[in-house]
């Protein structure tokens, strides 16, 4: 889809028989969903699932549920009302997140996949 199409109403988007879509910053995902309901093209990939791909917590949960092996990880949910999900203890050569110890070096990734501020400690 041309870059300009994202700025136009979906009714003016070119008609297509088949749609494949990959979310990226600036991509009008909501408009693409409206377009698929309006024009009913054959959809290669699930547009709704692209929201899930933007949240690392959801991705990890999905991979675990499907039995896919993952590297050891912990999720620190600073917004949780449950203290067991936001426990952080910092040591000189390690951190402990919700009872899981990570010795340095380790990688910290933000929840949002669009946020590329990845830190190595």
UniProtKB/TrEMBL annotation:
One GO biological process term: inositol metabolic process
Pfam families on file: PPIP5K2_N
Residue limits of the VIP1 N-terminal domain? Answer: 8-55
List the record's Gene Ontology CC terms alphabetically: cytosol
- Superkingdom as given in the UniProt entry: Eukaryota
Instruction: Name the chemical reaction catalysed here.
Output: 1D-myo-inositol hexakisphosphate + ATP = 1-diphospho-1D-myo-inositol 2,3,4,5,6-pentakisphosphate + ADP; 5-diphospho-1D-myo-inositol 1,2,3,4,6-pentakisphosphate + ATP + H(+) = 1,5-bis(diphospho)-1D-myo-inositol 2,3,4,6-tetrakisphosphate + ADP
What is the protein name for this chain?
VIP1 N-terminal domain-containing protein
Task: Please name the source species.
Answer: Petrolisthes manimaculis
Q: What GO molecular functions are on record for this protein?
A: 5-diphosphoinositol pentakisphosphate 1-kinase activity; inositol hexakisphosphate kinase activity
